[in-house]
Design a protein that fits this description.
19 strands; 5-stranded parallel beta sheet; 17 helices; Rossmann fold; 23% strand; binds cytidine-5'-triphosphate; alpha/beta; 8-stranded mixed beta sheet
């Protein structure tokens, strides 16, 4: 095992000039992106770009109608691959584009999927390349993922809903639709999900559901302790690590509740979020939500103290040069209280603590784990990670310490979720 100093040197070693690992979560995935006719084709350009950005190899296939909305030239430039639009494409040696394109694909993603195209799919129609390819795909090994896009009336029509149900029954993975303003001027359900949301769905699709059936409660971000109506005490936590864990846990199949201090981060899809300001509010929200949770991850940087009295009005200078007298009271330790509860002690609730330290990480984290009485504690060096997109973690449990080297918070969160999943259900020693 490394010495404390070696471990810390390793963890503190932050080369800001070095390029961070790419967000290559779909690295090596071969995706056939099928476009059908609809105004949402404009979003397919961004989707293609996003998929390439996260490491996927994208092969675009377009119907004739899709080519009315966006050109194959655009899609070729974005995917870096020639686009297929016809089953008679002579570029294929055997003239069987419908077979060749699907055989080594990891998935076929139809985005946008028009109402008409979904109707074709459920009937096994094969009168042009894209539907022919979908029908000819090896159904057991090449999943079909469908992102519908249409006017709200078309989406709500019983025929469309019947088709969606049938598509699902046939094994397709049909994504939800978005809600909002539509190109036709109406407002409602039926918009295609945004590119980022579809990429997120794909990541989730390929994530093993190691937390299926679990309810994960996560706290994230700083707290804000008011001095008066315009001032307060807070810290530099951005909430990025906690939000990344929430997303990773959701992708791993968990129901996720997130209690967030004041942060400027958007809520990841599928996650129930409660916003709080102070440590006392966070404690109340946790106590309410933790009753049904099976895993509690306390990633928030909770303020240790709060002013014992928040002034009702702004404290003013009186010109004398005197400074206001502030006195503090200690905030309750949210994690320690939860970890002491009967459910946590009986193993019904698995608690994970964090330790934000500035030095002596291994020693501090080891002592903090015992003090907080949690089976797993995640140590990190606060000043080198607060607000950043990357981090380095030190996992401490009863068996010892394990380093998770510097990486993006997204990747660390995914690995942390696996570590937690491997521990739940086991009888964990706290000492
Ligand atoms: N924590 C908490 N409630 C508090 C303080 C901390 O729930 N009032 C939780 C944090 O969310 C984290 C863990 O306890 O999971 C450790 O937080 P940290 O700030 O590192 O340590 P403290 O307990 O505050 O101790 P110290 O500041 O002395 O290091």
């Amino acid at each position: 095992m490394q010495s404390t100093r070696e471990m810390e040197n390793e963890i503190i070693k932050v080369s800001r000039s070095a390029t961070l690992p790419n967000m290559n979560d779909l690295h090596g995935k071969r995706i056939v992106l099928g476009l059908t006719g609809g105004i949402a084709c404009y979003k397919a350009a961004e989707l293609c770009r996003s998929l390439v950005k996260v490491g996927a190899k994208v092969q675009v296939v377009m119907t004739e109608s899709a080519a009315q909305f966006i050109t194959p030239v655009t899609m070729q430039a974005l995917s870096g691959q020639p686009v297929f639009t016809s089953q008679w494409d002579a570029r294929e040696g055997n003239n069987m584009a419908h077979i060749n394109l699907s055989r080594d694909a990891d998935a076929i993603l139809i985005a946008p999927a028009s109402a008409d195209f979904m109707a074709k799919l459920i009937h096994g129609k094969a009168d042009e390349l894209l539907s022919l390819m979908c029908l000819a795909r090896p159904i057991q090994t090449v999943p079909l993922i469908v992102a519908p896009a249409m006017n709200r009336e078309m989406w709500a029509h019983p025929a469309t809903q019947r088709n969606v149900a049938q598509l699902k029954a046939d094994g397709a993975h049909v994504l939800n639709v978005g809600q909002g303003d539509q190109a036709c001027g109406e407002t409602g359900d039926g918009r295609m999900l945004e590119a980022e949301e579809i990429v997120d769905e794909l990541l989730s699709f390929w994530t093993p559901k190691v937390l299926q059936g679990q309810h994960v409660l996560i706290t994230a971000g700083p707290t804000y302790e008011a001095i008066d109506p315009v001032r307060g005490i807070t810290n530099l936590s951005s909430g990025k690590m906690g939000f990344a864990i929430a997303k990773a846990a959701y992708h791993a199949g968990a129901k996720v509740s997130l209690i967030a201090g004041p942060v400027s981060l958007s809520t990841p899809r599928g996650i129930q979020r409660v916003d709080v300001l102070s440590a006392m509010q966070m404690r109340d929200a946790v106590h309410l939500a933790v009753q049904s949770a099976t895993i509690f991850i306390s990633a928030a940087a909770v303020a240790d103290w709060r002013p014992d009295h928040a002034a009702n009005y702004k404290i003013k200078k009186d010109g004398s040069g005197d400074t206001p007298e502030l006195s503090f009271v200690e905030n309750p330790d949210i994690l320690a209280a939860v970890a002491r509860s009967t459910r946590a002690q009986s193993g019904e609730l698995f608690c994970v603590g964090f330790a934000a330290e500035s030095h002596d990480l291994l020693a501090q984290a080891t002592a903090k784990r015992v003090r907080k009485d949690v089976p797993l504690l995640v140590g990190n060096i606060g000043p080198s990670t607060f607000g950043q997109d990357d981090n380095a973690l030190l996992l401490v449990d009863a068996e010892g310490a394990k380093e998770m080297p510097r990486d993006t918070k997204t990747h660390l969160a995914q690995d942390l979720v696996k570590e937690i999943a491997s521990r739940i259900g086991k009888n964990h020693s706290r000492n």
